[in-house]
Amino acid sequence: MNAAGALQKAIFAKLAGDVALRGLIGPDGVHDHLQARSHRPCVVIAAIDSRDASTASEAGEEHLVTLEARTGEGGNRGVQEIAARVRALLDDAPLVLTGFALVSFLHQRTKTGRDAKAKGHVAEMLFRAVTE
């Protein structure tokens, strides 16, 4: 497994294992891709963009992780609550990666809005991770 795969697995486990988040999105509300008929609300690991961040003495990678919180019709409030819980769980979290060390995992930004095509609301969250 590569570092991005190990990171994705750790993120999925952290989110799927949280009782409070499951209360907001349901027991099967965390996905590693957006499914055509996925139930709403949900949290999706939308993308991981990895690049080399090695130093002269150590191998490393930087990962830009995009997570999406999605809700159905209604106000923005529901998607903001889900995004806030995801940030609380993941920002600077000590995730354990199989075969790799997580140096940092920090929230960079969140953008919320209406997704007219999907008839709901979405919060796009960007996190930056560094692994060795």
List the helices and strands and how they pair.
Elements: H1 3-16, H2 19-25, E1 30-31, E2 42-52, E3 61-71, H3 77-90, E4 102-115, E5 120-131
Parallel strand pairs: 1-2
Antiparallel strand pairs: 2-3, 3-5, 4-5
Helix pairs in contact: 2-3
Order of helices and strands: HHEEEHEE
CATH architecture: 2-Layer Sandwich
Number of helices: 3
Total beta-strand segments? 5
Within the largest sheet, what's the order of strands?
1-2-3-5-4
CATH class: Alpha Beta
CATH fold label: STM4215-like
Report the helical percentage.
25-40%
Strand portion: 35-45%
Main sheet properties: 5 strands, mixed
Overall pLDDT level = 92
Give the overall silhouette. Answer: elongated
**Unreliable runs:** none
- Alpha carbon gap, first and last residue: 13 Å
The tally of structural domains comes to 1
Helix/strand class: alpha+beta
Radius of gyration: 15 Å
What is this entry, summarized?
The chain has 132 residues and is of the alpha+beta class.
